[in-house]
């Protein structure tokens, strides 16, 4: 006979995942302005580049909120996305399929700022 604790843990994990999805869906529904989301892997190199990029975006468009890793990031990811108020999104940069070398995964902040200007105008 299988131990009961495993089944309970699995059920609790499923309930927690469902609650997390609902919370994320609820937080996106009331969005009244565009938001820039930076998703980056949690390694040190990725964090430094994300910080520099978010600073450049905040200087260029101070009215736009910039969120860094609002959810758990994917392994090896570095993406910048513009979330519009109507629920659609526009990818400003993705470095997932770039590299090696690793430095190709990270954009120059000015490149992303230029892409953002295209989508905002």
TrEMBL record:
Short name of any one Pfam family annotated for the protein: Rdx
SUPFAM superfamilies: Thioredoxin-like
Keyword Acetylation among record annotations: yes
Keywords from the named record: Acetylation, Redox-active center, Selenocysteine
Presence of keyword Acetylation: yes
GO cellular component labels: Golgi apparatus
Similarity comment: family membership: Belongs to the SelWTH family.
Role noted for this protein: May be involved in a redox-related process.
Protein name in UniProt: Selenoprotein H
Organism taxonomic ancestry: Eukaryota, Metazoa, Chordata, Craniata, Vertebrata
Encoding gene, per UniProt annotation: SELENOH
């Amino acid at each position: 006979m299988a131990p009961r604790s495993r089944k309970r843990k699995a059920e609790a994990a499923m309930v927690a995942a469902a609650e997390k999805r609902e919370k994320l869906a609820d937080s996106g529904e009331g969005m009244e302005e565009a938001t820039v989301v930076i998703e980056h892997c949690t390694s040190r190199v990725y964090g430094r580049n994300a910080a520099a990029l978010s600073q450049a975006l905040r200087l260029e468009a101070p009215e736009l909120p910039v969120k860094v890793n609002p959810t758990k990031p994917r392994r090896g990811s570095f993406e910048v996305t513009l979330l519009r108020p109507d629920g659609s999104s526009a990818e400003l940069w993705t470095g997932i399929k770039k590299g090696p070398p690793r430095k190709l995964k990270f954009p120059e902040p000015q490149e992303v700022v230029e892409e953002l200007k295209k989508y905002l105008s």
